[in-house]
Design a protein that fits this description.
146 residues, alpha+beta, five-stranded antiparallel β-sheet, 4 helices
Length: 146
């Protein structure tokens, strides 16, 4: 069963995430991408905990972030996340940050991952080793790919 498109991760920056001017420090965005990714997997009924319990780890291979506008303490933002590419062994997410009630792009980014056996630390092909998890990623990729 294919789920509807994820509506985005809503977040309000904490004071400690800002600099003296009340602007969110650049180091926090990567952490926010991870929070959005974890929430997306929960939404897809395929949590990180369940993935790890299935003997799979998903290391980050690459991450990028492009800052287009400032986010301040007190702002509420929405992080939209889609699957840019999925091969069964590798996965790339796209992130776009907007004001929660707006359309101005504040930040964009990507993160690339692979799937490894937790036991052997070797690359696995989800379609072969965990077809139910593969199908979740495949369905969402088809739904959100640009």
């Amino acid at each position: 069963m294919t789920k509807s498109t994820y509506s985005g991760y809503i977040r309000t920056p904490h004071y400690y995430e800002t600099d003296q001017m009340g602007i969110v420090h650049h180091s926090n965005y990567i952490r926010w991408f991870e929070e959005a990714r974890v929430q997306l997997l929960d939404y897809l009924d395929c949590s990180y905990k369940e993935i790890e319990e299935a003997g799979i780890i998903i290391p980050v291979l690459d991450v990028s972030c492009q800052y287009k506008g400032m986010i301040h303490f007190g702002d509420t933002i929405r992080i939209d996340i889609s699957i840019h590419s999925y091969t069964g062994t590798r996965l790339t997410f796209d992130y776009t940050i907007y004001p929660a009630e707006g359309t101005t792009i504040l930040t964009t980014g990507t993160s690339s991952h692979c799937f490894l056996s937790a036991e052997t630390k070797r690359l696995i092909r989800l379609k072969k080793t965990h077809p139910e998890i593969h199908q979740i990623f495949e369905d969402y990729y088809e739904q959100t790919a640009n």
